[in-house]
Amino acid sequence: METIQRALRGLAITILAIFVAAGLQGLPAQAATGPSKYVEGTDPAAFLYDPLNITSISLTLPDASLRALSVDGFNWNDPTTEVGWQEGSAVFSSYKGTLPSMDIGLHLKGGAGSRRPISTCDPSCRVLTNSKPGIKIKFDFGSANASQRFYGLKEITLNSMVQDPSMIHEMTDYRIARSAGIPAPRAGYMNLVVNGVNLGLHMILETYDKQLFKRWFTTGTSHSYEGAYWQDLILNPTAIVRDYSTLQLKIGDVNTAYTDLRTIATINNLSGVDWWNAINRYADMGELTSVFAFEHFIEHWDAYSWYIINNYQVHFTDDGILTVHPWGLDQTLSNNTSGDRNVKYLDATVGPAARPTGILYSRCLQYTACKLLYQAAIARIGEVSDSINSVGFIDEIWSVIGPTVLADPIFRGSGAAAMKEDAKAFLSTRTQTSEFRSATTGRRLPNLDLYYSPPSHFEQGKVVAPLVNNNTGFAPKYTVLGDSTSPICSVDEVSGAITELNPGNCVVSIWTPAGPLVNPDDGNPGFHSAYAIAYVDLGKIPGSILLPSTRTIAYGVSVPLVFKGNSSGDQTVVASGNCTFANGAVTATTPAGICTLTITVAKDARHTPATATLELKISKEVVTTYSLSTDPNWTNSTKLPKGATLPLVNKVSKIVGSCINSGTTLKALGATGSCKVTIAAWATSTQSFVSKTFTVTLAPNPQVWLQKVALPVAKKKIGSARFTLANTDTVTTSGGQEGFFGYVGNCIVEVTPRATFVQMTGTGVCKVNLDAEAGYKVGAIHRVWTFTK
């Protein structure tokens, strides 16, 4: 039989031989004392999805939450108007014991047919005793609980199963799907109590989240979406069907979302061979046709591949490969259907009132190669259902949950036993019906597998040959999947050999056509069409980091660290030794020793991660800018008066000009010009000062006016004329001080751009003075004039 490589990746039904004695407080009487053979996986939450163990959860909701939830309801046109998360607390019990109370968030779930209220407020609030809601519980609800997990899970889904009185449909269906290699949720049973009111048995259903997809897809998830009620992967809406943009984003960056859906919707504008060739580059057609076959095999009328285009999940790997996943399987496994619910394997793709089925399904049935692959998938789903004894599985489930179902506090088991028997009868004869035999054509299931031995590292141009298991007798066709604008690899369509073009995952499909109904050579049935897919990690370019050439750092100075990795991944720097690293700069914390920097650049799509170590020898801080003098009143622009002395910052190595020194004291010998003083290099315990030459401007002592200022006069008669005090509007001294005029008496001092004057305004004596403050080591300067008219 054909095998799907994904089944080998994702399905691990392990019989666990561990029986743990534990308290059963609050659990139904049917609960066992350890995991059953149906537990899949070894993750911490695996035991929750055990059909033969019933766990329990007791919720406490405050009045505010009950009041908010009391007005919740399904909204056809705008699901965002439904009531969001409400706070509460939860206590969980299983054969492992009882967990401490956890703060949680809760909201109701369900579509038009299954959404039920949880509370009423008239005006006091209470939990309804005649309603059985489906709910979602969020364990990382609120900032205080951001790191809280429930056996590794952030959320759980509890389906009320109100449209399946037997409460076995979803459990049975999902097991068939997973056994056929379809990535689908695990499921278990959990009894729900809210504020002391027993709301009966619920199904805990694994959420389509990153954790689920990680178990099935090793290449990661870029986006996932949920589709419901006539939402389809089409570009433009019709009178009945909504377009791709109406699907709800569940996982992925909102800034990049919907571009992948648009690509698929654009392809779906094509038909026939054009559609087939295009969709094969972006979709796992083995998985898609398996889902369509599965939905039809279980009579899932409320599905993507039937007239309501409902209850489906869309997933894109990091490589951009599309898969579709089943959801909402409660109304299945029944022959008692009619009208829209009478799902036929090969029925017309347009139903009553011109309602179409999902575009991917209808396009598939319209093209022979895809239709034959779908028919092969029907045969395989039927074989899987029979081989895992789905009928016996129902009996095992019922032996555990039957008494609880029949005693359900809401439905009292109404119709449950009959529906369980109907499901058994449906499955026991499903592969024997004439419709099934006609749809599957009588061909044999083939074996087709594709595998490439992954290279140890990326090597552009290298050719890797396939390992193929193919018993069909037909030469297969190979196709590379993914974005053709930046391909990871190319493939020879005949030999299947791939050529490495870029680092990353090379995704290749293999397909063989259907054989004849009867082989003319031996009279045996021919083989079905077959499909398999292989994900080949071609490795990546080894990561590298280019370090700066400098290998020293001065104490006390923050130095930007500049390095370059060939990966675009996140960069981290960890400092150890005598330094710190912050805001992109490294700072030595001692004047000697070694600073060690460990630099890491994370992987990206093309490169492996890289780590490098940079050792910097720490030296004293090198000081190149400092003052000539230790005198705080001295600046490098200050003038030194003749005969004045200046304390120097360090000893002198050279003097040129009219100055002399005695040790670290400098003395001015001249009144004009300058002298050049070279300070010798020196060091402290933490700093090294370089030798530096300063220019010292010399000045007279005492101060003199630098501009032409009138000589002093006493009671000089000037009449009405103006007397020139200075030939400028601003007077300064050789000590760098500014002179200021003042006057007393019947006169006025007038300043013009070219001169400063005094003029009498009346009789009597006018006194004018010009004053400048003391300069550096020189006294103040003063001049006085007196005038009469």
From TrEMBL:
InterPro entries in the record: Spore_coat_CotH_CotH2/3/7
Classification via Pfam families: CotH
PANTHER family xref list: INNER SPORE COAT PROTEIN H
Name of this chain's protein: Unannotated protein
The organism of origin for this protein: freshwater metagenome
